[in-house]
Amino acid sequence: MSSRHETGWDGIYHRNLPKSLPWELGKPREVLMRLVDSGRITPCETLDLCCGVGTNPSYLAEKGFNVTALDVSDGAVKHARDRMRDANVAMNLLVGSFLNLPFKTEKFGFIFDFGCFHHVEIEYRTVFIMDVKRVLKRKGTYFMVCFSSENGPAWNHFRKEQIEQLFKDYFDIKWIRPFSSLEGDNVTRHFYEVLMEKLATTTLSEYKPGA
């Protein structure tokens, strides 16, 4: 029987150096830096979903955000701890699933998600979206980046209309903007950046008992 370090995301981060992974660029994502530089989001309780080796949450911590970062791979989180020490910043780093967020209701003012949502299996998308909304404070901001259908057809390559349909009942969508990025394997990939604000209306079914 194989160990969890040999399969899935954990296997990827245990078998490979971060610099060999196309999505680990060794620097913060430009879309995130632009958003912070714009002043649209300011330091607050922040969650980085699927944080990988911690480049983006380390940047946010350096900017004064109180950061919690979550990844399903303990290998990724180990790299993130090393990066945290190198950057001399403080973060709360956790190993856990994005489908059962281990946080109290309305804990975070800002959630950053680069490439997490587009790995959520189709049948769990609504569960994921509702849980993200649950842990956001009222009028909290969710900044999500996902694959675009410009990359070609795939189950997790989205059209703008799909994104609107999935999120419109839970969030006030401020913008959906296409962009392209030269990734670590020298392949240009196409994405959407989606800025959303939590809608004030909430149904009881969105909340976990005891949250």
How do the strands and helices of this protein lay out in sequence?
Layout: H1 8-15, H2 30-38, E1 45-49, H3 55-62, E2 66-71, H4 74-87, E3 92-95, E4 108-114, H5 125-135, E5 136-147, H6 160-167, E6 171-182, E7 188-198
Parallel strand pairs: 1-2, 1-4, 2-3, 4-5
Antiparallel strand pairs: 5-7, 6-7
Q: Which CATH class is shown?
A: Alpha Beta
List the strand order in the largest sheet.
Answer: 3-2-1-4-5-7-6
Q: How many separate domains make up the residues?
A: 1
- What's the helix-strand series? HHEHEHEEHEHEE
What is the CA-based Rg, rounded? 16 Å
Query: Beta-strand percentage?
Result: 25-35%
Distance between the termini: 36 Å
Sheet with the most strands, sense and barrel status: 7 strands, mixed
Query: Quick one: CATH superfamily?
Result: Vaccinia Virus protein VP39
Instruction: State mean pLDDT (0 to 100 scale).
Output: 88
Helix-strand category: alpha/beta
Number of strands: 7
Q: What is the CATH architecture descriptor?
A: 3-Layer(aba) Sandwich
Question: What is the fold-level CATH name, i.e. the topology?
Answer: Rossmann fold
As residue ranges, the low-confidence spans are 207-211
What would the principal axes of the Cα set say about the shape? globular
Secondary structure: helix percent: 25-40%
Helix tally?
Answer: 6
